[in-house]
Give the backbone structure.
Amino acid sequence: MAHPLEKYLRAGKLPHIWCAGCGHGIVTQAILRAVDELQLDTEKTVVVSGIGCSSRAPGYLHFDTLHTTHGRAIPFATGIKMANPELRVIVVTGDGDAAAIGGNHLIHAARRNIDLTVICFNNTIYGMTSGQYSPVTPGGSFASTAPYGMVEPSFDLCTLVAGAGGTFVARGTTYHARPLTNIIKEAIKHEGFSFVEALSQCPTYYGRRNKLRAPLDMLYWYRDHAVGVSQWEKLTDDEKAGKFPIGVLKKVEHAPEFSRVYSELIARARERSEA
Ligand code: SF4
Ligand code: MG
């Protein structure tokens, strides 16, 4: 019997390239479940990615997809949305792609409140290029470029995007796969810039260097350190230490959306030139 999500896959592109135990398949499935439950029109849904392990996902998806250059998924997605605001545009990116080379694009898309849904598969490492540290690698972690431990402070991606003006910001993990699907559904429905940080294990290049060698070790780490946002708000600062909130962290409804604002500007300019 066919898998209920099989219709969203390009069977000819499988098998995928991800390592056994990688979390990216779980995040990809959460996206497809969200698309399926929302009954999105696949003819009007575009998925755009940059470069990295996560950015291979759109290649397997049976939508209009673009696999672009490193860090530039958001500018491509912006162009698509501005050219045809009727399209629903989902960006699939990683922590290196979105927060390092693409960091500028991320904050400015958030500031503009353009109606894109950015799903960042955050494995806290550059997986595809064998484990260099990224701007979100936790302090003290080991990476191929941090053999004595990461000494730089890391970004909290959700706080970064919320501070830059994103109107929907949420975090989930691959351990919490069903809540992650619900978060992605809410993000897709949101009109404005929506950002989902999906923590996703890379056992190959993060786990094995950081005493989380097995994929299950990383999933249990998410289970033991993530706290639902309603519980999180009741914790003292001491209780929050070493933990992080999951769920919808920021949601602002009815903020001016960039493609709509820009269309109105074009209409005003046309009227003026015709007058
Ligand atoms: Fe997944 Fe890491 Fe392997 Fe890339 S290197 S496919 S992120 S486990
Ligand atoms: Mg990464």
Notes: The beta strands are 45-49, 64-67, 88-94, 117-122, 168-173, 194-199, 226-228, 244-251. Residues 18-19, 22, 24, 53, 123, 127-128, 202-205 surround iron/sulfur cluster (ligand 1) (CB under 6 Å).
